[in-house]
Amino acid sequence: MFNRNRFLRRVAAIASISLVAGCSLLSNGDPNSKGPIVVGTTSAPSTLDPAGAWDGSWELYRNIFQTLLAYPNGATTPQPDAAESCSFTDNASRTYRCKLRAGMKFADGDALNAQAVQHSIDRIRTINAPGGPAGLLGSLDKVEAVGDLEVVFHLNQSDATFPFVLATPAMSIVDPDDYPSDSLRKDGTVFGSGPYKLESYEEEKQAVLVRNDRYRGFADRQNDAVTIRYFHDSSSMVKALRDKQIDVTYRGLAADDIIDLQRQGNSDLQLFDGAGTDISYLVFNPKDSWAKQPAVRKAVAQVVDRGAIAHKVYKDTVDPLYSMVPKGLTAHTTSFFDDFGDPSVAKARRILSDAGITQRVPLTFWYTTDRYGSETGVMFQELKRQLEASGLFSITLKSRPWKTYVVGYQKGEYPVFGRGWFPDFPDADNFIAPFVGDHNALGTPYPSKQITSVLLPRSRAQSNRAKVVKDLEAAQQLMVNDARLIPLWQGRQYVAASDDISGGEQALDPSTIMMMWALHRKTSW
Fold first, then answer.
1. 3-state secondary structure of 320
2. What gap in Å lies between CA 195 and CA 344, rounded to an integer?
3. I need a labelling partner for 188 at 20 to 30 A (CA). Which of 76, 294, 432, 515 fits?
4. How far apart are alpha carbons 395 and 372 in whole angstroms?
5. What are residue 275's DSSP bridge partners?
6. What secondary structure letter does DSSP report for 25?
7. How far apart are the first and last CA of the chain?
8. Which residues pair with 366 in a beta bridge?
């Protein structure tokens, strides 16, 4: 019988998604059994340098680099990893001090000290790479190395979320001898201090990870080696799983493959279904003559049928989303539904006519072919069908592979484009702050003084995150009023694995990044 264990839980409380499979909790792992565990994904890194990526590349970084703080199994808040201890040293949450573990080294034997941490953070801001994570450090004034083992972060404003930022793989600690202070490293070689070393890497094909014997941190490695294979589509990935060429699939399972795995009896595969916080949304470019008009954006928001997308395209493996903050997080709202209600052509026509727009609005929608799953193209076809069926729009669809797609939206080439978002950390702030301001993760400036200068700073001054609901709800309402970003759906996490794989119940951190060290093969029942 097919071994399937479905559960749903509130994302605000997750520290890892429990992937419980039958008797796997009773098994003991032999990390040397049957060679490396092979994990398949459709999300390949865009760069191997942490200063250059604010995307799915973090999956690899988490396993080969260290950060000062991270998430041990079961933790809901960041805990020391490369650091021995970290804390705010003032009541205003503006000075954050970390003491490093003594004797830390990178995989090549170089010392990991306070100077390396300072170098790693400073270069992110100095390089300020397009699509890079510099935007996460907006509240940082300067970082200071005090001796070899202490690092002090001086903030320009109160920011109770700063420990969460330090726990993101973007803040991976790199060796100053190997990573230039003013440019990205491009030689395809990595020396981190994480649980694994990157033994070899073939772009778009695979990353071979082996145990780092110099690692000192909280990761309890249940295997000695993991190979991550990168696929261009779900069907080839699932075929590789069925053919036992890989052991686990993560990120990129298509709806048809999920349904097929659910329906088919199969004694040697497991499918796990857990709550997720990844979202899909549309971005409107204010530089485009049509997309910059609020009436056009609001008319699109009024026509889009999220329920049809979730049901027809994704076979109900995702949920309709009516706010940029997903369900399960404190401060989630349904603002788009509250303002626009059910899809209505009549209301959309009235929005346009009130703005003096009576012709069909021509818009070009862009999407990536190899980042957010095999259904992405189908979803955009459905969006085109919905909008053109209204008689109000004429939609042209265009697409590119992720690497060139990123360059395009950073240059402002796309009038309307699709993006997905996996959280940097499990707080509603992280579904608002990265998208607003002159320099954001979207490559299209989104000035909103009320959000960036009032609501977010006020909420970040509050260490009790339950007390920030009012401000974050107000920020979401402003985003609805602007309709610069239109949420479409919220995903769930699906992982398929061979029946002899265990440890998945501990493999995902609060950002649903897979910690490969938790996986192992079952050796007893």
1. strand
2. 53
3. 515
4. 21
5. 492
6. G
7. 17
8. 398, 417
> DSSP for 388-411?
HHTTSEEEEEEEE-HHHHHHHHHT
Query: Domain spans of the chain?
Result: 51-184, 275-492
Say whether 436 sits in a helix, a strand or coil.
coil
* pLDDT in 10s for each residue of the chain, 525 residues: 333 333 333 233 333 333 333 333 333 444 455 789 999 998 899 999 999 998 889 999 999 999 999 988 777 789 999 999 999 999 889 999 999 999 999 999 999 999 999 999 999 999 999 888 998 998 999 999 999 999 999 999 999 999 999 999 999 999 999 999 999 998 888 989 999 999 999 999 999 999 999 999 999 999 999 999 999 889 999 999 999 999 999 888 889 999 988 886 656 888 888 778 899 999 999 999 999 999 999 999 999 999 999 999 999 999 999 999 999 888 999 999 999 999 999 999 999 999 999 999 999 999 999 888 889 999 999 999 999 999 999 999 999 998 899 899 989 999 999 999 988 888 899 999 999 988 788 888 899 999 999 999 999 988 888 889 999 999 999 999 999 999 999 998 888 999 899 887 678 777 778 999 999 998 744
d(C-alpha 427, C-alpha 430), whole Å: 6
Crossing angle for the helix pair 294-303 and 376-389, nearest 10 degrees? 100
The residue with tokens 């990120």 is: 251
Provide the Cα torsion 301, 302, 307, 310; round to 10°.
-20
Query: What architecture is the 275-492 domain classified under in CATH?
Result: Roll (3.10)
3-state SS assignment for residue 302: helix
Distance, CA of 503 to CA of 446 (rounded, Å): 42
Do residues 387 and 419 lie in contact, with contact meaning Cβ atoms separated by under 8 Å?
Answer: no
- The CA distance from 395 to 386, in Å, is 10
Do 490 and 318 meet the contact criterion of CB atoms below 8 Å apart?
yes
CB atoms within 10 A of CB 106: 25
pTM above 0.70, yes or no: yes
* Structure-block tokens of residue 71: 């998430």
- Least Cα distance to 379 among 326, 285, 305 occurs for 305
Query: What is the number of alpha carbons within 13 Å of residue 202 lying toward its C-beta?
Result: 8
DSSP 111: B
Contacts of residue 470, Cβ cutoff 8 Å, sequence gap at least 6: none
Pick the CATH number of 51-184 from 3.40.190.10, 3.40.50.1100, 1.10.3720.10, 1.10.10.60: 3.40.190.10
Query: Going by C-beta distance under 8 Å and a sequence separation of 6 or more, which residues neighbour residue 189?
Result: 48, 178, 198
- For 90, residues 6+ apart whose C-beta sits below 8 A from its C-beta are none
Residue of 19, 390, 48 whose CA lies nearest to 197: 48
